Amino acid sequence: MLHLKFSDKIEVGCDEAGRGCLAGPVIAAAVLLPDNFSNLILNDSKKLNKEEREELEIIIKKESISYGIGIVTAKEIDEINILKATFLAMHRAIDEIKTEYQLLLIDGNRFNQYKNITHECIIKGDGKFLSIAAASVLAKTERDRIMKNISKEFPQYAWERNKGYPTKQHREAIRKYGANKYHRKSFQLLPNQLKLF
Question: What pTM value is reported for the model?
Answer without folding.
Answer: 0.95
